[in-house]
């Protein structure tokens, strides 16, 4: 049986989202994220970042910069808490390209899962947007958690609103931040 995973959105969930981040040195971790990732990994979860980076497709982010940003992210996580990301899965297309990998489509989750040998039925998707929640549901993850960091507070306000029509079901849980999301999932696991 495969390993469970935390599928994590990047901007607004792991790091501050300045909008089309294109400078590795400007990358800033959100508080408590590194130790939360460390705890999740120590508990036996793989860590997979699933991110829409349409700035590449729109010509706003040079494609070669993206690996540099993830290298820097790895460095910050390692320095702060000895935390490790196992895999990055990125959609580089603009919405206009109508690709088959942009969240909320589950393709990047499925590909990562096959590549790393993961068990989606014991995995969780965490993000600051309802499209992240929908991605987790589309992929058949056991749980979805919305975080209030990034755009999460505004997204939470949409829950139950009519404007939220494409997202029929809300997240399984809403946490203040990634640390809260990890606490909630690990708490359920140990029951
Ligand atoms: Mg986000
Ligand atoms: Zn794509």
How would you characterize the overall build of this protein?
This protein has 191 residues and is of the alpha/beta class. Helices cover 36% and strands 15% of the residues. The chain contains 7 helices and 6 strands; from the N terminus they run E-H-E-H-H-E-H-E-H-E-H-E-H. It has a 6-stranded parallel β-sheet with strand order 3-2-1-4-5-6, with helices on both faces. Strand 1, helix 1 and strand 2 form a beta-alpha-beta unit. Helix 1 packs parallel to helix 7. It is globular, with a radius of gyration of 15 Å. The protein starts with a strand and ends with a helix. The model has no long low-confidence stretch (mean pLDDT 94). The structure holds magnesium ion and zinc ion. Zinc ion binds next to loops.
